[in-house]
Design goal:
Helix content: over 70%
Distance between the termini: 79 Å
Number of helices: 4
Radius of gyration: 26 Å
Shape: elongated
Number of strands: 0
Largest sheet: none
Strand content: under 5%
């Protein structure tokens, strides 16, 4: 076997190398995406999630008010909804990191209120 460095490679190896090159170009986390588009998407996500959690918290508070639950339960749901509403406002203004932490805190307050039920 006298293999020269300029000899042809197997077709399978050449095909797999071409497929690997193509996979790298189709990367969904490609850094060439516009940062303004990424920031806009983060703002919409934070605002939408905050609004959805606010509505869910208010609905749960209203449902708990109609039942015979301690007063602390609907208050916790309403308080968590208020925190999530603040997170939605912050998220829409571009403060997405703070909005994320407020969303976590709001859901934790609602979960704590659920423990009192």
């Amino acid at each position: 076997m006298s293999g020269r460095p300029d000899s042809d490679t197997d077709p399978e190896i050449a095909d797999s190398e071409a497929a690997a090159d193509q996979d790298e170009s189709d990367d969904p986390l490609d850094e060439s995406e516009d940062p303004r588009e990424e920031a806009r998407r983060a703002r919409w996500t934070a605002a939408g999630t905050g609004a959805a959690l606010t509505l869910a918290g208010l609905a749960a508070a209203l449902l708990r008010l109609t039942r015979s639950a301690p007063a602390l339960v609907p208050a916790a749901y309403a308080g968590g909804a208020a925190v999530c509403a603040a997170a939605a406002v912050l998220g829409s203004r571009g403060r997405t990191r703070r909005a994320l932490w407020l969303l976590v805190a709001g859901v934790m307050v609602m979960a704590l209120g659920d423990q009192f039920d």
